[in-house]
Design a protein that fits this description.
Blueprint: H1 2-14, H2 61-119, H3 164-179, E1 184-188, H4 193-207, H5 210-216, E2 230-235, H6 250-258, E3 264-268, H7 273-276, E4 281-287, H8 290-299, H9 304-307
Antiparallel strand pairs: 1-2, 2-4, 3-4
Length: about 325
């Protein structure tokens, strides 16, 4: 009975009222039931081929990149500036060193020239150079000592005097020539300032003007004969004495070939009048000492001007 009553009750509860509410249940029962949970709509999948959105950059990263670029540029600019300064410093130093070197060379050249000029201007030196541009100093110079060489001569003894060193060398050379069968004679030697003036004036009178006389005779104060180091030779038989044809004599040929051994040079060689200032004289020899004579012969240098690097002296 009890079971039948429960069933009856259940059947009675299932019947709805006219307003659709359960019979005998309060109207608010359905309203108080919890609503089903709302589901969030799923994110729509990205369409195929659409790139994913870029990740947002970290705060301040753009400024850091800009600062680094500026720093790198500053370093590069500084490196360039430092290199430019270094290159300029090197260039300035090189220029300064070159200027100093050039000045040192110039100073040395001037000093050497001054020494050379002094050495070749001293009338007492065997290396003295006397020509139309280089007068004796003093012009009336007189050697401290003169002697007469003990050799054959064609004039008075006083006209063939030479300095002792030149006279001794003349004696040796004449003796060597005689040993080879070549006869030499001494034609002239030292001339004073006054004697040279008289000699020059003779040639001016002979030619009628100074221009032609200047080709064959030195003016007083410009003559090597005043040094006591120069002399003229002749052949023992007198052939072509002091004239052009003397160059073809045995005496001229032998002396030109062997003179350097005794310290002599042929002072006015053929073809060098534009340097020496005088016509060729195959009889005029000059004592310069064995060292200079040997050096000139070895180098093939024909004149003292060329040997010592002095300017030509074609005229006064």
């Amino acid at each position: 009975m009890a079971a039948a009553a429960v069933v009856a009750a259940l059947l009675a509860g299932c019947a709805g009222g006219s307003d659709g509410s359960a019979a005998g249940a309060p109207a608010s029962t359905a309203a108080e039931l919890p609503a089903p949970a709302q589901r969030s709509p799923a994110a729509a999948p990205a369409k195929e081929g659409t790139p994913a959105a870029a990740a947002p950059s970290k705060p301040g990263s753009g400024n850091a990149d800009s600062d680094k670029a500026k720093s790198d540029k500053a370093k590069s600019d500084k490196a360039k500036s430092d290199k430019a300064k270094s290159d300029k410093a090197k260039s300035d130093k090189a220029k300064s060193d070159k200027a100093k070197s050039d000045k040192a060379k110039s100073d040395k050249a001037k000093s050497d020239k001054a020494k050379s000029d002094k050495a070749h201007s001293d009338p007492a030196s065997p290396g003295v150079v006397v020509n139309k541009r280089r007068p004796l100093s003093p012009r009336d110079f007189v050697p401290s000592k003169l002697v007469v060489p003990r050799v054959e001569r064609t004039v008075a003894a006083e006209r063939v005097r030479l300095r002792p060193d030149a006279a001794a060398a003349v004696e040796k050379m004449f003796a060597a020539a005689a040993a080879k069968g070549v006869g030499l004679t001494l034609v002239s030697g030292y001339r004073s300032f006054e004697e040279q003036a008289a000699t020059y004036n003779h040639w001016v009178g002979q030619y009628g003007d100074k221009a032609q006389a200047d080709e064959v005779s030195a003016r007083a104060g410009h003559s090597e004969h005043q040094t006591g180091l120069a002399f003229d030779i002749g052949q023992a038989d007198g052939t072509c004495t002091l004239v052009l044809c003397f160059r073809d004599t045995e005496a001229a040929r032998w002396t030109a070939e062997h003179a350097a051994r005794y310290g002599f040079i042929l002072r006015y060689p053929q073809g060098h009048h534009e340097v020496t200032g005088f016509s060729a004289e195959s009889w005029h020899f000059r004592y310069v000492g064995p060292k200079i004579a040997a050096a000139m012969k070895a180098a093939g240098t024909a004149t003292l001007e060329e040997h010592f690097g002095l300017p030509p002296a074609p005229g006064y």
